[in-house]
Amino acid sequence: MGSIRNMLIVGLLACVALVALPVHAQDGRVVFVDLERIFDEFHKTQRAFEGLEQRAQENRAERDRRIARLQELQEQYQAAREISADTAMSEVVREEKRNEAIDLQLEIERYREQSEEVLMELAQAQQADEQRIQRRLVDEILERLERWGRQQGYLAVLDASGRAVTGVPVTLYVDSRADVTDAFLEVLNSAR
User: Fold this and answer.
1) 3-class SS of residue 141
2) Half-sphere exposure for 27 (CA within 13 Å, toward CB)
3) H-helix segments, the chain
4) Nearest in space to 183 (alpha carbons), one of 5, 62, 32, 19
5) Nearest to 174 by CA among 59, 31, 36
6) Is the pTM of this model over 0.85?
7) Cα–Cα distance for residue pair 50/150, rounded to 1 Å
């Protein structure tokens, strides 16, 4: 509830700020960009996420190895249980297999818990890396966008891709003459 109230307050402040600005869209003084598109098309974003995909593949391979090991342990457990129930076997063999089945059952539980922990840690580390990389890229884009906007003499550069908490676009209409996304992308990606 407080989050929605805060978003409404921020939205109202943004509207007041826009109304207070001497808007000269025809002069190109207040312009808009699609930050989502800029982020997606930034050459560094594409390289960064290729590296993250490699890590995701390694995590999937680790998960697959652990699943295969669990299946192997479960098959051994089933085999031990079947032999322990086989009346054609001697009582000594059956008792050994019962004990083996108990040990395997405990090992399966330990391995399952350990695997869940390891896989959770890998997923959290990957998510933290993704957030760190995304934050670094966004910070670089915003810093360069601000510098570029000042060099162009714009009063404001606003994001047209944002959405309110309700999912409604924050910017309802942008004339294509006020959209400088392509121009900024060209500058941003020219420094390869």
Assistant:
1) helix
2) 10
3) 2-20, 35-41, 43-85, 91-152, 181-190
4) 32
5) 31
6) no
7) 32
